[in-house]
Design goal:
single chain, alpha/beta, 12 helices, binds SN-glycerol-3-phosphate, binds calcium ion
Amino acid sequence: MYVRPVAAAAAAFLGLALTLAGTASSATATTPAPSSPSSPSSPSSRAGSDPVRLVGAPVVYAHRGASSYAPENTLAAVDAAAAMYVDWVENDVQRTKDGELVVIHDDTLTRTTDVKARFPDRKPWRVQDFTAAEIATLDAGSWFGARFAGARVPTLRQYLDRVDDNQQRLLLEIKKPQLYPGIERDTLRVLLEAGWLDEQHVRRRLVVQSFDADCVRIVHALRPDVVTAFLGTPPEADLARYGQFADRINPWHTTISAEWVAAAHRVTGVHGRAMEVDTWIVDDPATARKVQAMGVDGIISNAPDVVREAVGGF
Ligand code: G3P
Ligand code: CA
């Protein structure tokens, strides 16, 4: 069987990473922190952050791309964020029946594509029941607006290439990993093949997050250098445990207070720095200013231009 050299190298590399993580008592203890060495006390010391961010201004992330302006999780949404000079985009990754990683939020195709019309007898239209070739034929844009007709559900590889072409950065969410055993390794393989696990990307342009703590733990074990985030709002007393495998805790904005954010900041993350907090989904100026006053490090928004204007960020 012919094995593509890049894929073979990726498999070998990930295998080595897993072996190393499995034999070390703490894989992170020897992992260099992914910071900018040129200005260690500036905001650039924030793992994966923008080095020119003003002190006090949260980083703004385009949630599912700039999804108030283009269909979520499509290349058009990535480009919409780029058009407003928002360099961080967030996405959701799931897996098809034949093992391709695709970018889509729901675990069914019904809300954001024309799958019901195209495949009426395939109820409940789960992502994992369709091949990548089938999904590639679906219209993922018309539901949002006629001018987006023909937009596709991108593969993760297509998505990474577009984000790279746009010189943007990626907050990658592994969605519902319990449905897709091994998706952590698959995701890292695609990232590696696309050139997203080199030092430059890992240090400044990539964060991997999940609502599933075990998923985040696995990503960290496989690639201890990658910046990771747990999605949720753990009790203050539990926060330190997340610092064993995560750099960030990313909570829903309605669940936090200034005290909770301060408690998270007192925890040391897995790369030896204060835990960071990026909250979601904030789309209006008043709420943006409210969470900014709480001290959050980042705001994840469908309308990143609105939030950026409100908080004075980049
Ligand atoms: O990045 C945070 C946010 O995306 C989590 O919620 O459901 O939009 O994936 P959801
Ligand atoms: Ca998400």
